[in-house]
Amino acid sequence: LKDKYEILREKNDIDISFFGEKHVVIIENKIDAAITANKKMTIDNQINKAIKGYIEGENEGLKAKNIIEKIIENNPDKIISQLSKYYIFALAYLISKGVAEKDLKNSIKCFLLVPKYSKNQFSNKYLSGFICGEEYELITYEKISEYFWALHSCDHYLAEFLSAMKPLTKEFDNEIEEDLKYRFFEKICIM
Q: 41, exposed or middle or buried, with CB in 10 Å at 0-12, 13-18, 19+?
């Protein structure tokens, strides 16, 4: 992606986003959390809010709304959630930058970062139950860790980062078990 990006945290509630002139990357972090459904919000509300944030002028707003409605599958059997909200914001932003309608879908990359022990919770079948859920690619922290370890960098901050991420790369969430072991051995050593 040859573009200059503005890297943002929590813009429009998106954990991490990269906004460029012709591309948007959305990263949603899901550590011990589910996808947030929004039963009070409609797709129409999400579109209007996104357009209000990025598109100026009533005529331009109507054009943008028509384009977004063509792209977004508003299936009443699917759940409206943060996934559709983020994707719609990305569409509105790219429309405001003049990206052609035919290029919009290929200009957005969406990722869900999950611990290895949560991978099965976020299956393709589960994600397809959400509007825009199929637009998100699942990446485990194990894959991220493997990538950075492959760099063989001796950077102190990278080592700290990888160490902090280690529990998220495991098959099971055994944080409580690890804590209990630590406390047990601490008690034995004190006696």
A: middle
Rounded Cα distance between 119 and 106, Å, is 25
**Alpha helices, H only, 119-155:** 124-127, 141-150
Give the CA angle between residues 127, 118, 10 to the nearest 5°: 70
**95 Cβ contact partners less than 8 Å away, ≥ 6 residues apart:** 54, 55, 63, 64, 67, 68, 104
How many whole angstroms separate alpha carbon 102 and alpha carbon 114? 31
Rounded Cα gap, residues 39 and 42, in angstroms: 8
The SS3 call for residue 154 is: coil
Q: So what's the pLDDT on residue 177? A: 64
Q: Which helix (H) or strand (E) holds 10?
A: strand 6-11
- Residues 87-115 pLDDT 10s: 999 999 999 999 999 999 999 999 999 99
Instruction: Check if the beta carbon of residue 111 is closer than 8 Å to that of residue 27.
Output: yes
Contact 22, 97 (CB under 8 A): yes
CA 100, distance to chain mean position in Å, is 24
DSSP-derived pairing of the beta strands 14-19 and 6-11: antiparallel
SS3 (DSSP) at 185: helix
d(CA 36, CA 38): 7
